[in-house]
Design brief:
By secondary structure, the protein is mostly helical. The chain is built from 13 helices and no strands. It has helices at 3-6, 9-34, 40-61, 74-96, 99-106, 109-120, 127-144, 154-172, 181-203, 212-238, 241-244, 250-263, 269-301. Helix 2 (9-34) runs antiparallel to helix 10 (212-238) and helix 2 (9-34) packs parallel to helix 12 (250-263).
Length: 309
């Protein structure tokens, strides 16, 4: 029996989550490399079309439809808008700024979800998670350092990406349960195509005919993105959220290594300190939220807490 087979479900899920984050870090490196020779709008449109095709194949293999009227639900539309804003902000930040800095700012997403859920969805948030939000935002300010020579406008695009992804995930919580996840993913990626065309009209940038190198990079982006998504789903289904969720922050570690090896980036000490604050606060917030979600279930399973009590 292999060492992997002897692992518990939580151990396997943690490995899958770490592998998923590594795949996403490599995907980001492919995207950043492509932005050097390809307009952002074209990259969004091509990857959106290709990824939509992948999810369409998955839906077809499951006997499900790519399009249903469920996709006209206001929350689905809002989710797609958030996906477009998030993708544009993140990809443009990668094009203009550093991979390490952009990845670090992206990791504040779990904390903005806590804030958004409290402000817009009426969820109860205790002082511990509010404290983690404050610590995480302090980390973001330490990275941005507005008003100093270290500040770069591209960092605000990364913040814009986080806002878009927060909108996406908050809207997802209000989508009817019956809508398949693969259909939502296909819809979101498909929305990138007209969004890319609109962006092209506004920017006036001409399309670039991909050469063999760019085609290879595009394929790498697609492969690592799909593999990362597949590993993420496997981790989420196999392990307990309170155990697995903090491993999402391994993406930051992978991104720092890739940024240093591939792009020669050398983050300064304040940036590393800010990233550490974000990772620590976000990891705690995810662990705390997963634990709170598990308590009602544990209470329902205790003797004396049946449906008639």
């Amino acid at each position: 029996m292999s060492a992997f087979a002897r692992l518990s479900d939580n151990g396997k899920a943690s490995l899958f989550m770490s592998a998923s984050m590594a795949m996403f870090a490599f995907e980001d490196a492919f995207i950043k490399t492509l932005t050097r020779s390809m307009p952002v709008w074209e990259l969004l449109a091509i990857t959106g079309l290709a990824a939509m095709g992948v999810f369409w194949i998955k839906l077809a293999m499951q006997g499900q439809s790519l399009w249903t009227r469920d996709l006209l639900h206001p929350m689905v539309v809002l989710r797609n808008i958030g996906e477009i804003i998030g993708a544009f902000g993140f990809v443009t930040a990668l094009a203009l700024g550093e991979l390490a800095t952009t990845s670090a700012i992206l990791q504040v997403l779990p904390l903005t979800l806590v804030l958004g859920a409290a402000l817009f969805l009426g969820e109860q948030v205790g002082w511990r998670r509010w404290s983690s939000v404050a610590v995480g935002f302090a980390g973001v300010l330490l990275i941005l350092r507005p008003g100093t020579a270290a500040f770069h406008p591209s960092m605000l695009l990364a913040v814009m990406g986080v806002i878009g992804l927060t909108l996406r995930d908050l809207a997802t919580r209000r989508i009817p349960k019956g809508v398949p996840s693969d259909q939502l993913s296909a819809s979101a990626y498909g929305a990138m195509v007209p969004a890319g065309v609109l962006l092209a009209m506004l920017s006036g940038e001409a399309a670039v005919m991909p050469d063999p190198t760019q085609v290879g990079l595009l394929l790498g982006t697609l492969v690592f993105g799909v593999l990362g998504y597949t590993a993420l789903v496997a981790a989420s289904r196999m392990g307990e959220a309170s155990v697995v969720a903090p491993f999402r922050y391994s993406r930051l570690a992978f991104a720092l290594v890739v940024a240093a090896v591939v792009f020669g980036e050398r983050p300064d000490l304040p940036m590393l300190m800010g990233a550490a604050l974000i990772a620590g606060a976000g990891g705690y917030a995810m662990w705390r939220e997963a634990g709170l979600r598990r308590k009602p279930l544990a209470g329902a399973m205790r003797p004396g807490n049946g449906p008639l009590t």
